[in-house]
Amino acid sequence: MTRLLITGATILALLAANIWQYNQVQKQAAIAATAQQSAADRLATIKQLRADVSEREQARQRLESTQQAMAAELNTQQIQIRELKRDNEQYRQWADNPLPDITRRLQQRPTFTGAGDYYQWLLSRGESLHTEGSQASTEQ
C-alpha cells in the first residue's frame, strides 16, 4: 500500500510538472508571437518611411528642375528687357519712369506670418474676407 501511495504521488508530481511545463511553453509561444508581430509592424513602418523618403526626394528633384527652368526663363526675359532698353529709345524712356503712386501702393504689403496677420491687415484697411457664397460689398 505504501508503494502504491508513493507511485501515485510520483505520478501526480510528474503530471503537475508537465502541466507547469506546458503553461511555460504556452507563455513563451505568446511572447514569441507578440515579438514577431511587433517586428512585422516595425518592418512595415520602415518600408513606409523609405517609400515616403523616396517620394519626397522625387518631389524635391521635380521642384529643383522647375526652379531651374523658371530661373532660365527669367534670365531670358531679363536679357530681352536689356536688349529692348538698349535698342528702343521709346521703351527705355517708359521703363525709366517711376510707377504711378496707385500702382506702387498695390505692390506694398507688410510681411505676413500667417493667415491671422493677413486678416488683421485687411481689417485695418477696412476690408474683410467673405465666406464662400457671400458677396463683397463692391460686388453687390
TrEMBL record:
Keyword field: Coiled coil
Segments forming a coiled coil: 46-87
Source organism superkingdom: Bacteria
InterPro entries per the UniProt record, alphabetical: Phage_P2_LysB (IPR020000)
Record NCBIfam families: phage_LysB
Protein name (database record): LysB family phage lysis regulatory protein
Species the sequence originates in: Nitrincola iocasae
